[in-house]
Design goal:
By secondary structure, the protein is an alpha/beta fold. It has 5 domains: 3-195, P-loop containing nucleotide triphosphate hydrolases (Rossmann fold, 3-Layer(aba) Sandwich), CATH 3.40.50; 203-330, Rossmann fold (3-Layer(aba) Sandwich), CATH 3.40.50.300; 399-507, Orthogonal Bundle (Arc Repressor Mutant, subunit A), CATH 1.10.10.10; 521-596, Orthogonal Bundle (DNA polymerase, domain 1), CATH 1.10.150; 607-675, DNA polymerase, domain 1, CATH 1.10.150. The chain is 47% helix and 11% strand. It has 32 helices and 17 strands. Helix 7 (155-162) links the parallel strand 5 and strand 6 (166-170). Helix 29 crosses helix 30 (638-647) and helix 31 (652-659) packs across helix 32 (661-675). The longest helix has 18 residues, at 349-366. The protein is globular.
C-alpha cells in the first residue's frame, strides 16, 4: 500500500504537512536520515508511516515511557500492531508484545534507551526482523545538552550490529549538536539532513522584566481562566508555592517536579491529558512527553536556560494550530543563576563559553528592539518579516542611542584585563571607592566615575542588554570575568553605533530582598569550584571538610585569587603543612581547571548527598557483574544515583521506586546499608 493511501486510511490525513513527504520518502527508501523539525510539526508520522510501508519491524527508541505508551495506544486505535517494552509494562503487556513479535504481526516496537544496556538486545532485534531504527529526541545523544541520556550513546553500536538504516528526529539542534548527533548515531557518515522551518506562527511571544513576578503570573493566568497552560519554574519549591497560589485564586492547578514520587507524577500527567483547563506548574522535568494538542499557553516564571530550551518549551503550546501564547519573565537573579549553572558544569571551557553565548542569545530575545519572532528565527538561520504576533509588533519598544554607555562599559572591561564581572565594573563606572577597587588601583583608571549619568540598576540593565547583543560573555577560565567579543570591536572603535531599549532600563528594579551571599556575584563561581575540590579532598582523607580549609579561607581565595604558592601562603588559614598538601590542588582550581566530575555529581558538591553519591557509586562498581563477578553487567545512571542520594530512602521499597526492581535485586542491600549509615 502506498504512503499516500496509508496517510489517509490509517492516520486520517488528506495531505502531508509541509516537509513531511520528503522525509517519509527518504526513510521509506532506507536512507540514513536526520530530520530537524519544529515541536508539533508531526515528527512521529515521519517514522510511523514508513514503518507500515516497509517490510519487517521498525524499532523506535524514545526517552519517555509516557510518550511511548501514548503513541502505542494511538497506533493500536488506528489498527496498527505496535507495542512497547518499558519498565512500566505489566507482565501481561510484555507477554503480548513478545507474542506479537514471534507471530510476525508487530510493525513498530518502542523501547527506552536504557534497555540497550542489556547484552542480548541486538540478537533479539535481529530475530524479530528489525529493518529500521527510528530515534526520537535525538538531541539526547549530545553529552553537553540539557537532555543528555548516556544510553543514547549505545544506539550507534546497535545500528552497526544490525546493519540497518537509521532515522533520527529532533525539534532543537544547533549546528554543534547536529554534528554530535551525526558523529554518535551515524558514525560520522553524513546522513540525509532535513532542516525544516522552525516558525510556529500561531504562538504569540511576549517577555516582561520581573516586577512582583508571582502577581504577574497570576494576572496572566486570570486573563486566560479555564484554558490549559504550563508555568515553568526554576526550582521545585517554587512550583509548589505557585501552584498553591493559583488554587487559592480559584484555578484548577497542580505542581510537578522530579522530586515527587513516580506515582504522583503519573497522576499529574494523566490529569493534564484528561482534564480541561488544568494549569501545571512545573520544572522542565514536565512536558517532553506531553502530546496534548490544546495547551493554550506556556509561561516562564523564571528565565529558561538557553534559547533552544525556550523554543522547545514554548513549542508545547498550540500543537493543534489554534492561537497560543508564550509569556516569559526575566530578571537579574535568573541570569545570575543560569550563569552559575554553566560555570559549575563539567563541560570544557570552550563549551561553557558557547553555552554563555546561547544564554546571551536568549537575553537578546528578551531585550529585542523589534519583532521577537524575527530575532528567534534568525538564531535558527531563518529570515522572516515582522510577524505581527508578538508584544513588540503589538507595541514597538522605546529605544535610544546606547553607543556612549556601551563604549564606557567595554573600556572598563578592557582596562581591567577582562578579569572582572559586571558588579565590579559598575563600581568603577560609578566611581565607587570599594576595597576591591582601591586594592586593584582601579580608582586611577580613566573610566573611574565616568558613568554617573546612570544609576546602578540602570547599569545592570545596560550590561544585560550588552550580553543580549553578544558584545560581552563571561569567560569560564576567568571565573566569570567579562570578555569582549569580536562583535563589540567596531562599536568600541567608533565605527558602529548601537541602539538599546529605554523601556527595560526604566523598568529595571532591584532583585527584591538581597540574598545574603558569601562573596560577590563575580566570585561565586570560583567559590563553588573551591568547595567542590575541598569536598573531594576531605572525602578521600575521611575527614570533615573544614579540616582541609574553613569557609573563611576559601572565601579569601575566591576574592584574592592567588596565582602562586607564595601568594597562596598569604591567605589566612593556609599554614606551611596545608600549603604543602593542598596548595597546588587549589591553585589549579583558581587557574580554571575545576574537577572533572559528572554534571549530576557536581550539583551535589558541598551537600551531604555528594558523599552518599560517591559511596553508592563505589558500591555499584563492585557489583557491576554481581557478587560473584560472573553476572551480566548492570549499572544505574548517574542521574538515578543522584536521585537516590538526594531522596535518601531508608527501606528497600523506597530504593525500588527510584532504581526499579531489577536493579534493586542486585544493588538494593548494599545501597540500603549506605543509606542507613551502617
Amino acid at each position: 500500500m502506498s504512503a499516500a493511501t496509508l496517510l489517509r486510511d490509517v492516520f486520517g490525513f488528506d495531505a502531508f504537512r509541509p516537509g513531511q513527504q520528503e522525509i517519509v520518502a527518504a526513510v521509506t527508501a532506507g536512507r540514513n536520515t536526520l530530520a530537524i523539525m519544529p515541536t508539533g510539526g508531526g515528527k512521529s508520522l515521519c517514522f510511523q508511516l514508513p514503518a507500515l510501508v516497509r517490510d519487517g519491524v521498525t524499532v523506535v527508541i524514545s526517552p519517555l515511557i509516557a510518550l511511548m505508551r501514548d503513541q502505542v495506544r494511538g497506533l493500536r486505535e488506528a489498527g496498527v500492531e505496535a507495542g512497547a517494552l518499558t519498565s512500566g509494562n505489566t507482565p501481561e503487556e510484555t507477554d503480548a508484545v513478545w507474542e506479537a513479535l514471534e507471530a510476525g504481526r508487530l510493525k513498530l516496537l518502542y523501547m527506552a534507551p536504557e534497555r540497550l544496556a542489556s547484552g542480548g538486545v541486538p540478537q533479539m532485534l535481529k530475530r524479530a526482523g528489525v529493518t529500521l531504527i527510528a530515534v526520537d529526541e535525538a538531541h539526547c545523544v549530545s553529552q553537553w545538552g540539557h537532555d543528555f541520556r548516556p544510553d543514547y550513546l549505545r544506539i550507534g553500536d546497535l545500528r552497526r550490529e544490525l546493519g540497518v538504516p537509521l532515522a533520527a528526529f529532533t525539534a532543537t539542534a544547533d549546528a554543534e549538536t547536529r554534528d554530535e548527533i551525526i558523529e554518535k548515531l551515524f558514525g560520522g557518515a553524513e546522513p540525509e539532513v532535513f532542516l525544516h522551518g522552525f516558525d510556529r506562527p500561531n504562538i504569540h511571544l511576549s517577555f516582561a522584566v520581573k516586577d512582583s513576578p508571582r502577581q504577574q503570573i497570576l494576572r496572566f493566568a486570570e486573563a486566560r481562566r479555564g484554558q490549559s497552560g504550563i508555568v515553568y519554574c526554576g526550582t521545585r519549591a517554587k512550583t509548589e508555592v505557585l501552584a498553591q497560589a493559583l488554587r487559592e485564586t480559584g484555578h484548577n492547578s497542580a505542581h510537578y517536579h522530579g522530586g515527587m514520587e513516580a506515582d504522583d507524577r503519573r497522576i499529574t500527567e494523566a490529569r493534564f491529558q484528561q482534564e480541561d483547563g488544568l494549569i501545571v506548574v512545573a520544572t522542565v522535568a514536565f512536558g517532553m512527553g506531553i502530546d496534548k494538542p490544546d495547551i493554550r499557553w506556556v509561561a516562564h516564571a523564571d528565565l529558561p536556560k538557553s534559547i533552544e530550551a525556550y523554543y522547545q518549551e514554548i513549542g508545547r503550546s498550540g500543537r493543534d494550530g489554534a492561537p497560543a501564547e508564550a509569556f516569559t519573565l526575566f530578571g537579574p537573579d535568573d541570569i545570575r543563576f543560569r550563569r552559575q549553572q554553566i560555570d559549575e558544569g563539567l563541560a570544557p571551557p570552550e563549551r561553557r563559553m558557547a553555552d554563555h553565548g546561547r544564554l546571551n542569545a536568549l537575553l537578546g530575545l528578551a531585550e529585542a528592539l523589534d519583532c521577537r519572532r524575527h530575532e528567534l528565527l534568525q538564531y535558527f538561520g531563518e529570515e522572516v518579516a515582522q510577524c505581527g504576533n508578538c508584544d513588540l509588533c503589538d507595541k514597538p519598544a522605546e529605544v535610544f542611542d546606547g553607543t556612549e554607555p556601551v563604549r564606557m562599559a567595554l573600556s572598563a572591561a578592557l582596562r581591567t584585563g577582562e578579569r572582572f564581572g559586571s558588579g565590579h565594573l559598575i563600581d568603577i563606572l560609578l566611581g565607587g571607592e570599594t576595597d576591591k577597587v582601591r586594592q586593584n588601583g582601579h580608582d586611577s583608571l580613566p573610566t573611574f566615575g565616568v558613568g554617573k549619568a546612570y544609576d546602578r540598576r540602570q547599569w545592570q540593565a545596560i550590561f544585560r542588554q550588552m550580553m543580549g547583543h553578544d558584545l560581552i560573555r563571561p569567560d569560564p577560565e576567568m571565573h566569570g570575568g567579562l570578555r569582549m567579543t569580536d562583535r563589540a570591536r567596531p562599536i568600541l572603535r567608533g565605527e558602529e553605533t548601537i541602539q538599546l531599549r529605554a523601556d527595560t532600563i526604566r523598568a529595571a528594579k532591584g532583585a527584591g530582598p538581597k540574598i545574603k551571599m558569601l562573596v560577590s556575584d563575580e566570585d561565586a563561581p570560583l567559590l563553588s569550584a573551591l568547595k567542590a575540590k575541598r569536598r573531594a579532598l576531605a572525602e578521600a582523607a575521611g575527614v570533615p571538610a573544614y579540616i582541609i580549609f574553613n569557609d573563611k579561607t576559601l572565601i579569601e581565595m575566591a576574592e584574592t585569587r592567588p596565582a602562586t604558592l607564595d601568594q597562596m601562603a598569604r591567605v589566612g588559614g593556609v599554614g606551611a603543612k596545608k600549603l604543602e598538601h593542598y596548595g597546588m590542588a587549589f591553585l589549579e582550581v583558581i587557574a580554571g581547571e575545576a574537577e572533572a566530575l559528572h554534571p549530576r555529581r557536581r550539583k551535589l558538591a558541598g551537600k551531604e548527598a555528594g558523599s552518599v553519591y560517591d559511596q553508592l557509586l563505589e558500591a555499584q562498581n563492585s557489583l557491576v557483574r554481581g557478587e560473584d563477578g560472573t553476572g551480566k553487567p548492570m549499572s544505574c545512571t548517574a542521574s538515578v544515583l543522584a536521585r537516590l542520594a538526594e531522596a535518601h530512602p531508608t527501606d528497600l521499597g523506597g530504593i525500588e521506586r527510584i532504581i526499579g526492581a531489577r536493579h534493586t535485586e542486585r544493588f538494593g542491600t548494599a545501597f540500603l546499608e549506605i543509606l542507613q549509615g551502617g
